[in-house]
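hi!! sorry for the late reply, been swamped w classes. u asked for the two structures so here they r. pasted raw, havent cleaned anything up. first the sequence of the first protein and right below it the tokens
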Amino acid sequence: MERRFKGQPGGVSEPLWLSPAFAKIIAWRWYVIAVYALLLPVGAYFAAQVGQDNSIDRLLARNDPDYLATRAFEKTFGAGEFALLLIEADDPFDTAVVERVDRIERALQGVPRLTTNSLLSVYRRAKAGFEPTPDQVANLRDFATGTDLFQRQGLFGKRYLAIGLVLDVRGSAERHETVAAIDRAIASVAGDLGPVQRIDRLGQSFVNVYLDDAQRTAPLYFVLFALFMVVFTIALYRSVRTLVAFLLTLATCLALCVGYIGLTGGTFTLVSPMVPMTVLVTASATLVYLQSRFVERPADRPVDAHQLFTLTNKFVPCTASIFATAAGFAALQVSNLRIIREMGQWVAVGLALTWVTVFTLFPALQKLLRTPTEQERRGAAAWLMRLAIALPRFTYRWRWPLVVTPLALSGAGLVAVFGLPGVVAPMPLLTEPVEYINHASPIYQDMRRLTPLIPGLAVTHVWLKGGVGSMSEPTVLTSLYNFQKTLEAVPDVGAVIGPTTIMRMLRYIGGQGDAWPSDPAALDQIAGDLEAVVAQEPLVSHFVDPTVAQAQLTVISRSNEDEDYERLRHAIYQRWEAAQAANPELKEIQLQTAGLAPLQARMAQSLVPTLAESFMLTVVIIFGTFLLIFRNGTARLMAMIPSLFAILVMFGVMRISGMMLNIATILIASTVLGTSENDQIHFFYHFLEGRRSGSVEQALRHTLLVAGRAIGFATLINAGGFLAFVLGADLPPMRQFGVLSALAFVLSMIADFTALPAALWILFRERPDDVSEQAEARYDNRATRRSQ
């Protein structure tokens, strides 16, 4: 059975079983607390098992075509992350410089899961040894400059020698171990650089390690949030007992949420700190709604009776707001980005656990700690009384500007993010991982300074699949050589390395020159040599499989953004079609692209659909929640104006300030919409209470008196919680997320108290009550008593 509010259509229902259920929870408080006392260490244990991994293969869903292609490619040719060590010097072939490069490379030889390639290692294999003496260094210079093979691969330049690194790592732990060993090798000469000016580390592996280390400071976010909650709770409720109840409840919510992630084998990535922070912010706002209602106890009502009234009265709006938020985050499952889908799932589960905790543990702690009400801790709220009298009439007088202006700004924000065909381009996407790190860090500055000097760091594998032995056919090899030459002419391509590159290098080492032969006998010799060295030379096995049925060309480019890569992909396929048309022997060979560059491009392609689809689903879910709870579609649609206004204006601010959409800021829309809608749910719940027997003005006053202060405090919690990312984050996307989220929450609150009442005046077509100031004061007193 349910007790329904009578009067206005769309009234709110309160199940009759709520009060007895909460009475039992409070009566069994010791059992409730004992259960959570057992769950808390279990949750903390599993939470401690959650690792950190920011590698790009964590981004995409496991069923993504590019992800599957890359994994299949790695089964044939091996996995690997490409990186470079650049040793800078005025004269890279100075004997002292070469000696230090040699020491570094020798130190790297014993590092597990690491393959090195450098000018020195090639020369050492060619000459059956090498020592950095002046004579041998002079011979090395002649060897390097006698062909364009080595310079095109980026193994040396006018002011540097390079050591190419291939890290065969799987997961964050192996990557960290390997990079630490590389650092130790660099340290072997760091104390005596001599003429070496700098040793630079370039590549995605080093960026991933930096991101992992930067995210290890994530606990600082929650320390800052805890300090904020301590100050906020004491200032608001002036009670240490209330503070203890809040902190214990929040700690339990955090432990259960992160413990679930650890229990299911989850791993944190770049955006994962948003998961526990979203749960904490939502839990804190819900506690404030409950406690703020609880402290407003009439003098003639016993504490126990008032606690049951509070829990029963706030159950529906708190439940609706939590589950609307959870459903909104669950909508992130539409994303093709694995980390976004995981975030949506984790937040949804975390909020479900939060709902249970808030309505079981917190009431038990309230009773056990005897948290005081305003009868024991009197708080002044004269400003709220004045606001409740003045604001409804202000919003009526300016109702049209207060509605039209936010709608116009929202339209501008919509154009800012999605663009206007032929007039405004869509907001640009930022997908290059190096842009996610601190721009003041040495690794960022080195990569930006040196990228124009090297072939590039973006790796795309051109995977060729034919019949057994097909890749060693002389005519096929010649066609692949010509195809490789056309790829090297593509803008932004710095180097293309493939089987023909290796065979040209072997010919050069053997004194036959580096040119690709046209003589049939020489071509037959190359084909035979290729089949012979596939099983013997590890370097060759990276480019040709043992059956000589498959081969790959490694395209190294500066195509770091999605648009650049799409041009590169198009150029690869276009030139392959031309090669097949000109060379019939290539007709049966299939081409497919794989590697980190396609994965990165796929991530970019998934960002805008993630924003648009998840945002629309969140709107539909929250509107459905409003409709289910309040049963008036038109009014509830207008209730979404504050959140939509805040989000779209925030996108306009991003556009004006030059910010770009990235893996973090793409989540702001769903996060803010899901979280800020809590305020509108509480607003409407109490507005309908007031409409049972009162006018629009009386209902608005009732809402402001009962929920106005709590909405303001919840906004402070939302904004303050996400501002912790600004103070504690080292990564630009996380800081941007914190600033923009806080701004959106404040904008939403402003619209709650202006645009939303104005829209209700327009919708209900009423005028303010014709009452004197004394009558207003009398109504104010009656409304206060009725709300209690």
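now the second protein. again sequence first, tokens right under
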Amino acid sequence: MSDDLLRLTATQAVAELRAGTVSPTELLDASMVRIAAVEPAVNALPTLCEARAREAIRRLPADTGPGWLAGLPIAIKDLTPVAGVRTTYGSMLHADFVPAHSGLTVERLEANGAVVVAKSNTPEFGAGASTFNDVFGATRNPWDTSRGVGGSSGGAAAALATGEVWLAHGSDLGGSLRTPAAFCGVVGLRPSPGRVARGPDGDVFDDAGVEGPMGRTVADTALLLDAMVGRDLRDPLSLDPPDTSFTEAVRTARPPHRVAFSPDLAGFTPVDAEVAAICERAVRSLEALGTEVEAACPDLTGLYDVFHAMRGQVYAGRGQLLDAADRDVVKPEIRWNVEFGERSTGTGLAAARATRARLYHDVVAFLAQRTVLAFPGAIVPAPPVTTRYLEELDGHRFPTYIDWVQVTFLSTVVSCPAIVVPAGFTNTGLPVGLQLLGPPRGEATVLAVAALIEQQLGLNTLPIDPRGSG
């Protein structure tokens, strides 16, 4: 029975919960058994909160709206507080921190019937695209445990791929929902700023970082997004829910007339040749539905510098929370990013904002003629778990620790939603993800196109048991 429950998609599991044919306790029991079985191999969910979850089941709300999860177990990334549960941010500075209140996203999810069972592993303060830290160690890729999972929502992606939970929460500043999805063969969606209310702690006016959903399928990801969205006055950027649910947008998906594909964003980043070929085959699967796939990309001049200016501003703010002793404790990549941000000038930030505005208008005009822009979710398959960050690809050296995921920068800079959907596998069996960028607040658009690609490819074999190399 436990194995049968694990193989249910989140959408199927919630349908069973709503019908009363499966209970939340049965799903929680199955989740805890699976966690015990696979955690030694992957280290995805280092902090469990089983007793809290069982108490939450006794207090489940009775709502039945489109975002109601009806008692489904989920994981919350260890950057977002869960009241009464150890929340470390992946840092020794907070190794024993237990928050008194939850983040806004957790509040909304629990109000919509989610049952939090665990915190998922993340790099220190979410910095970097490799999930390791001094508190819990590294998370390993279930497709090949000698490989990493990306970051910073790496624990979430591995937990989904192995069936420890049916849905997982994550966050994304520079690809943190999308890179792990590409490496682990799951779906990750970076929503538009404001689509998911954040806070109440931290910079509530920051539009670079967002929280969002991950799932094993596109429909599951839409279901979790429906459970996350809504206005909250404690987040000044937050938006009202859409009139039509994201679940319905996926259910009624229709083939787009035209989509664009660029394997390297017109030379913006190097990309492994096998990855590029797999992504092109995936997007061209839409041609069988009558969609025109066009080789095209907007002008992205200035994108690199704008992203680093935005990221530097975020880290300069974080640096104000670190005293000299703290800076000696955090990893060197964080120190570098804080110092980079502190060197920024008002004139430089103003110039970056002007370039950002131009990029936004250029992308909006480009997408007015095409439904989405498709490109790789990551430029390489998952690297070895010991890789802090990729320093070079095909003779191109990356100047900073975050540049090897610069294929994710565009969505952040232009505030447009982007989704990564499984596209195929390399010759060595590692997952590859295709990224789709949609128009502003166009989550329904990218979900619908991703669902069509998912249907065309028929790749979903999750969950899997962790596999050793070779």
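hope this helps!! also noticed smth abt the second:
The chain has one domain: 2-303+345-457.
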